[in-house]
Amino acid sequence: MIYADYNATTPLDPEVRAAMNEALGATFGNPSSIHSAGQAARRLVDRARAQVAGLIGAAPDEIIFTSGGTEADNLVVLGAAAAPLGDGKGIITSAVEHKAVLDPCAFLQSKGHAVTVLPVDRDGIVDLAALEAAVNTDVALVSLMLANNDTGTIQPVAEAVRAAKTIPVHTDAVQAAGKLPIDVKTLGVSLLSFSSHKIHGPKGAGALFVRYGTRLAPLSHGGRQERTLRPGTENVPAIVGFGKACELACTRLEADARRVAESRDHFEAQILARLAGTRVNGGSHRLPNTSNIAFAGLDGEAITINLDMLGMAVSTGAACNSADKTPSHVLVAMGQSAAEARSSVRFSFGRDTSDEEIDRAIHWVVQAVNLLRGVRL
Ligand code: PLP
Fold first, then answer.
1. Residues 265 and 224 in one domain
2. Is 12 left (phi over 0), alpha (psi -120 to 50) or beta?
3. Domain containing 183: what range?
4. In angstroms, rounded to a whole number, what is the distance separating the alpha carbons of residues 105 and 78?
5. Which of 63, 95, 157, 358 has its CA 20 to 30 A from that of 210?
6. Ligand 1: distance of its center to the CA of 365 in Å?
7. 182-208 pLDDT, tens per residue?
């Protein structure tokens, strides 16, 4: 099988698995217990917190562990609106955010909060002038993703922070973490979410960076863990795995990004050259691993199914929306018609994708598309 759906999830790194085994075995204590068994588990969580903070240039105390990206995003959106200063205030976000941001925003809107959804251009880049115009003292939060899951488009987050003036800015970095170098100080964001299973860690762990002094209210209550922002006994094995995955991502990021970008560029160039009516979505400033391609006149889902039968895993967009027949809201927000948006397939490669797999992927995509177009081979 060729796995080309790394934006949906990634395989567990063997070194991550080995680190988790320790926490799944002897170190089973509750990190909140004061006895030695508990404190041994606490040390594992502390080490992971430092590793996770290291990936984004944060201080360990600024990391709140969650169950994943969705929970981190919800904690930000709902927690910022409910925090003492944000109570009843509005939110600014963009039309291309993941549903983990857009859906809690819609929930807030149903409760009477003002939600401004910023438009994007044809490449999916947010309109900063619209952001500047929307900024006012009744806004509690700006939430703008660092890189898009469907297209890989990278947003001008540092510029958005400047445009937002004193309003705290959150960035959903679930897709960017481990693929782009991230430094929260350079970006200037107050909040940043990311997820373990997108960077070769286990599912069930994620993190929210909360800059010192940022006001946020918890969504659940019942313990003092994670600065009371996310109470509940920690998922120690998953957190340990997440920590190891972040440490590995730190050391490999540059080399992995360079190699995967070369493979992705070769893949794209070959597909565009060999198949008429193809176009890459998302502009030129994209994640190194992502290629979202429109195949004119075809249904992306049919291509996905045909590729699956050949042995290649790709997707037509976010895995969490795959049961949904509506076209990608990201491509529609970029000005595409429903038919255009439905003709697109997302290919996302990763650190394990070999040159041989890329060549086979090119061959299979050409074969599947020609078959669907009725072209005789
Ligand atoms: N945000 C983005 C941009 C994503 O791509 C995803 C997952 O695909 C999420 C949030 C949700 O993360 P998780 O799967 O860890 O809940």
1. no
2. beta
3. 14-249
4. 8
5. 95
6. 26
7. 999 999 999 999 999 999 999 999 999
